[in-house]
Design a protein that fits this description.
Length: 219
């Protein structure tokens, strides 16, 4: 089947209701401290790379079994399953790109049948988190670069893409996509995104897409 388009979504507070790193922080007994840093980073008040390193350092000493526990506390945003299934029916590829971690994001993506996944990976030694990230950190530049890479791989144009996210680190990909959507987003994202959804229901992404298509047909 010819690929008709590409939809790229953030994960934390977009595809899922929770912030995965905040759940990890709670498990480490530093939930409030981690959540405060997360909120400031998503508002664009902190450099994301530095904020992530600071939060991950607080997770040092957690056993890798913690991922099984937090997966039980994660919930897909209403409409997530229906959105992915409908997009696939329409010939779209679906991707997630996250400042969160492969250890949980891969499981969630597999459950929904998502086509592409990019996230961070936590370093562990002897089954214990070291407080460091393995490899390059996924930044706002990474998110945009992934969008552009997957566009090329599928012979698409940026005009054929949709990007959905809630935090400041999602803005470059939201602004680069054909349809950029701020989803229940922080103020800085709502102000700068072309479109916004302020209801926790991902099926509304289809409403935006279909509304724009209908407008094109009537122009």
């Amino acid at each position: 089947m010819t690929v008709k388009g590409l939809v790229v979504m953030d994960v934390d507070s977009t595809l899922i209701l929770e912030e995965g790193i905040d759940l990890l922080g709670e498990e480490a007994g530093v939930g409030e401290e981690v959540a405060t840093i997360t909120e400031r980073a998503m508002r664009g008040e902190l450099d994301f790379r530095e904020a992530l390193a600071e939060r991950v350092a607080l997770l040092k000493g957690l056993p890798v079994s913690v991922f099984e526990r937090i997966l039980k506390r994660i919930h897909f945003t209403p409409g997530a399953r229906e959105l992915v299934a409908t997009l696939h029916q329409r010939g779209y590829k679906v991707a997630v790109v996250s400042g969160g971690f492969h250890e949980t994001v891969d499981v969630l993506a597999k459950e929904l049948g998502i086509d592409y996944v990019k996230a961070n990976r936590l370093e562990a030694e002897n089954g214990i988190l070291t407080g460091r990230v393995l490899g390059e950190i996924v930044t706002k530049e990474t998110k945009k670069a992934c969008l552009e890479k997957w566009v090329l791989e599928n012979g698409l144009r940026l005009a054929d893409t949709v990007a959905v996210g809630d935090g400041a680190n999602d803005l470059p990909m939201i602004q680069a996509a054909g349809i950029g959507i701020a989803f229940c987003a922080k103020p800085i994202v709502r102000e700068q995104a072309p479109y916004q959804i302020n209801e926790k229901n991902l099926i509304k992404v289809l409403d935006v897409m279909d509304g724009l298509m209908n407008n094109k047909k009537t122009d």
